[in-house]
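Ex. 9. Protein: Inner membrane ABC transporter permease protein YejB.
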Amino acid sequence: MGAYILRRLLLIVPTLLGIMVINFVLVQFVPGGPVEQVIANMQGQGDVFESFSGAGSDAGTDMTAQGGGNSDYIGARGLPPELIKDLERQFGLDKPPLERFLNMMWNYIRFDFGESYFRKVEVTDLVLEKMPVSISLGLWSTLIAYVISIPLGIRKAVLDGGPFDTWTSGIIIVAYAIPAFLFAIMLLVLFAGGSYWQIFPLRGLTSDNWEQLSVAGKIADYFWHIALPVAASTISAFATLTLLTKNSFLDEIKKQYVMTARAKGLSEKRVLYGHVFRNAMLIVIAGFPTVFIGVFFGGSVLIETIFSLDGLGRLGFEAAVGRDYPVMFGTLFLFGLIGLVVNILSDLMYVLVDPRIDFEKREG
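Predicted structure tokens for Inner membrane ABC transporter permease protein YejB:
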């Protein structure tokens, strides 16, 4: 097992490098850049997209080279060439792309992600500031999905082909087909004062008077705010887990040891929960890290934007729109590294749950 883990750890390096290379190269061909942002802001055009027709952010300086851009800055006519050159130097865009990439990766290897171009805050500090929101969404959505999916999947397996299995499958298919962002909007319209009931808050993770609340009040306020975003994030996750649980149980129920246990006179409850459950849950329990990361990263941008939650998904989206390359590439590197490490942890979970699994023999 040690050799397998070592091989997987070594594969992280070329995989992560490939992710960074592909994204860095793509950025070189994307119109606009931090210099365009500054020019658009100076000319009062708003943001970089409006500089082709313009966009904007408050300009800051960062000497770290992170991305690319076009030297023919549309909208820069009338500005002194010296100013354009100075902006390129400040953003590190006066160096060749290869040199910028190598400098960036050398810094990232040492976990030095630089400073945001426009916020004048270290990228690491920004990530740590936004992470609690994304962790809250990912963790609660995953836990709720498991709490719903495991009992429902077991029940569907036991009553396979019956009316309960049929109509719950219909609900699951519909739930899986509904995009999370569309479900989030529907929840806002129905329960956040959109057109019907004002039961839940419209935005944010806490109330304005959070600091004045008691401990119990803070807990209640937190769950009051997180209810709708978590529901929107969970809608599709529980569908996959339910079907996975059902299929795992069906596979185990058909095996010889189950028939032997029944022949010995064991009750159906003892067979299901004393024998089948332990084996059928291996793949479901061991996949927890992967499911959590999937919920953590997938769809978080739209959910956080719709509910005005200041999390990592929204941070990455705003960095991409604002061409804040240190934040873009810093978060990409961190998320890529976390995802690759979690895949290894997921394999280790399989071994921990079932020591009979041997990845080295499977590879051989």
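Check your answer against this statement. Residues 125-321 form a domain with the MetI-like fold fold (CATH 1.10.3720.10).
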